[in-house]
Hints:
214 residues, alpha+beta
Amino acid sequence: MKKSVYSIVLMDDVIKAVDEQAYRMGTSRSNLINQILAQHLSCTTPEMRMRDIFGNLEELIGEAMQIQQQRSASLLTMRSALDYKYHPTICYKVELERAPDEYLGTLKVQIRTQSRRLREIFDSFFVQRVRKESEQLMRAGYEYPEWKLSPGCFTRRLINSGEYTDDRIGEAIAQYINDLNYAIQVYFSAPGELMTDGDELMSRYTRMLSRFIV
C-alpha cells in the first residue's frame, strides 16, 4: 500500500496522547494516526488486514496451542507442549508481510530444549518433511518456498497463491500449522521414516493441500 509524506498541524495534547498510545501498541506515531484515520473513514490498513487474518487463525488453531500476546500487529506466536520426555515446548511464530507479493509471510518453528538429542530428532523431522512437502507441491504446480534449518529451528516462507480472502488466509495458515504440529507429535512418538506413501500423515497433508496452498 503506497504511502506519502504530508504535513499536518495537531494540538500538543493530542500528540502526547498519540505517542503514549503508540508506545503501548509498539508502533510509530505516524502509523497509529494512519490507523485511526483509516478506521474513522472506513479504509483498510495493513494492520487491519493482519488483525483479521490473525483473528481467524486464533479461532481455528485449536486448544492444543497457547497463544502468546504480541505487541507487533504483524507477529503471532503460539506454543504447543510436546508429548515426549521432559515435555519440551514447540514454538510457532507467524510474521505477515504488510504488502504480500510472492509470499504471505514467514513461519518459524523452534523447539525449546537443552537436549541435543531432541534437537536432532526435530531437525530430522524437518529434513524429511521438506522433501515430502516439496514432492506434493510440485504435483500441484508450486515450488517449495524459501526455507532454512538450523539446530532446533526451522523457517519457511508462506506461499501467496493469490486465491484467498483474508479469512481464508487465516484458515489456510491455521490448517497448515495444525497439520504440522500433529505430524511433529507423531514423529516424536516414534522417530524414523516420515510420511511414507499411503500413511496417515501423508494422507492428512494431501487433504490439506487439496484445500489450501500455503
